[in-house]
């Protein structure tokens, strides 16, 4: 079994919440959607089509880190930059990351077909912010073209073998 909590990461539209909930079920852990930990000012900013900056993100990441440190949990959290992932690692030693990766076209199609505070217009800013994990981060990466259940199965198997 995975030795620490898990963050299912990626840009908006990658399926973090769907895969995260499925993965938590497979591991027998709690699932938390990191979006629910955003301060209301962040939600309002994103809903208005304004990208968050680091000053907006730090308090949110601290809230995510606190939840990760609280116990066996899978959290959906974009964690787009290495500095964000490092902050979460500092808050919850042993945290593992699962990156949901896909083409811009597939991400945009998913975003246009759902009701969420994050508008499709912010996809390009999210993709520009994304820093692909370095090999020393040991992030598990899955293609979102696969069915969410298959991704969750593979991630559970890979986390248990880690």
UniProtKB/TrEMBL annotation:
<protein>
    <recommendedName>
        <fullName>Gluconokinase</fullName>
        <ecNumber>2.7.1.12</ecNumber>
    </recommendedName>
</protein>
<keyword id="KW-0418">Kinase</keyword>
<comment type="pathway">
    <text>Carbohydrate acid metabolism.</text>
</comment>
<keyword id="KW-0808">Transferase</keyword>
<keyword id="KW-0067">ATP-binding</keyword>
<dbReference type="InterPro" id="IPR027417">
    <property type="entry name" value="P-loop_NTPase"/>
</dbReference>
<comment type="similarity">
    <text>Belongs to the gluconokinase GntK/GntV family.</text>
</comment>
<dbReference type="Pfam" id="PF13671">
    <property type="entry name" value="AAA_33"/>
</dbReference>
<dbReference type="InterPro" id="IPR006001">
    <property type="entry name" value="Therm_gnt_kin"/>
</dbReference>
<keyword id="KW-0547">Nucleotide-binding</keyword>
């Amino acid at each position: 079994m995975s030795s620490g909590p898990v963050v299912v990461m990626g840009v908006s539209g990658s399926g973090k919440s769907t895969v995260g909930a499925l993965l938590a079920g497979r591991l027998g852990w709690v699932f938390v959607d990191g979006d629910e930990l955003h301060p209301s000012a962040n939600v309002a900013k994103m809903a208005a089509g304004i990208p968050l900056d680091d000053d907006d993100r730090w308090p949110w990441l601290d809230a995510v880190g606190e939840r990760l440190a609280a116990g066996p949990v899978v959290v959906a959290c974009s964690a787009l930059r290495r500095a964000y992932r490092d902050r979460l690692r500092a808050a919850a030693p042993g945290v593992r990351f699962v990156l949901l990766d896909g083409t811009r076209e597939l991400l945009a199609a998913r975003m246009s077909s759902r009701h969420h505070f994050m508008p499709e217009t912010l996809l390009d800013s999210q993709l520009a912010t994304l820093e692909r994990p370095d090999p020393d981060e040991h992030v598990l990466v899955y293609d979102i073209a696969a069915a969410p259940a298959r991704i969750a199965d593979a991630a559970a198997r890979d986390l248990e073998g880690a």
